[in-house]
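Quick one, probably user error.
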C-alpha cells in the first residue's frame, strides 16, 4: 500500500539515515514499484531517458558491500581500509542498495541528434540522474525506510559490472542504501540558510 503522506510532507521529512537494519517496512514489490515509477516518470532533457538503475535487495545487497569492501581493501593502506571498513559494515547491515547509472550511449545518441546542444547533454544527464535519486529517496522515506547516498565509484565500477551483467556503457553515479531505521536522522535539526538569500520572486500578486 502506498504512503498516505502528501508530496510536500515527504519532501520536508526526507533526511539522511545511517543506522539501518536488514529489514524493510514495505514488500520488495513496493520498492521495485517505486523505482519503476521513477524510471518511467522522472523528466529528462528532450525525453532522453538516460538514467538506469540496478536494485539489490537482501543477500544481493550484502554481497554488493562485500565486493566494495574487497575492492577497497586492495586499494587502501591497512589503517585507512580499517576505518573505511567500519562504514562498509554499516551499509552492509542495511536491507538494500540501488545503483544509479547513466547510459553514455544514450547520451551520445542525443548529442549526435541535436548538435546545437551537444555540449549540454552530459550536464543534463547528471541533472536527470539527480532527479531520479531524489524521487526514489523521497518516496522510500515516505514509506518509513531510512536512506543514505554513497559515492564509492569509480573504483567499484568494473567489479559491479561483472557481477550484475551491467553494460560497459552504463556509467555508475551513486549507491543508495536503504533499510529500516533504528534511530533518528544523521542531522536531527537541519540548519537552513535564509530563503531570502536563495530565492527571488518578481510579478507575484
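Nope, works fine. Designed sequence:
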Amino acid at each position: 500500500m502506498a504512503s498516505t503522506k502528501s508530496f510536500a510532507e515527504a519532501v520536508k521529512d526526507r533526511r539522511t539515515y545511517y543506522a539501518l537494519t536488514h529489514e524493510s517496512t514495505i514488500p520488495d514489490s513496493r520498492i521495485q514499484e517505486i523505482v519503476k515509477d521513477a524510471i518511467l516518470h522522472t523528466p529528462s532533457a528532450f525525453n532522453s531517458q538516460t538514467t538506469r538503475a540496478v536494485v539489490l535487495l537482501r543477500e544481493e545487497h550484502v554481497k554488493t558491500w562485500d565486493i566494495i569492501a574487497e575492492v577497497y581493501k586492495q586499494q587502501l593502506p591497512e589503517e585507512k581500509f580499517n576505518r573505511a571498513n567500519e562504514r562498509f559494515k554499516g551499509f552492509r547491515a542495511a536491507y538494500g542498495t540501488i545503483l544509479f547509472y547513466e547510459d553514455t550511449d544514450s547520451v551520445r545518441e542525443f548529442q549526435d541528434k541535436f548538435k546545437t546542444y551537444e555540449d549540454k547533454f552530459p550536464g543534463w544527464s547528471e541533472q536527470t540522474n539527480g532527479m531520479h535519486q531524489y524521487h526514489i529517496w523521497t518516496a522510500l522515506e515516505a514509506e518509513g525506510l531510512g536512506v543514505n547516498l554513497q559515492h564509492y565509484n569509480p573504483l567499484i565500477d568494473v567489479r559491479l559490472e561483472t557481477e550484475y551483467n551491467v553494460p560497459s556503457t552504463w556509467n555508475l553515479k551513486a549507491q543508495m542504501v536503504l533499510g529500516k531505521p533504528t534511530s533518528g536522522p544523521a542531522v536531527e535539526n537541519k540548519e537552513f540558510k535564509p530563503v531570502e538569500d536563495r530565492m527571488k520572486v518578481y510579478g507575484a500578486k
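The two ends are 40 Å apart (CA to CA).
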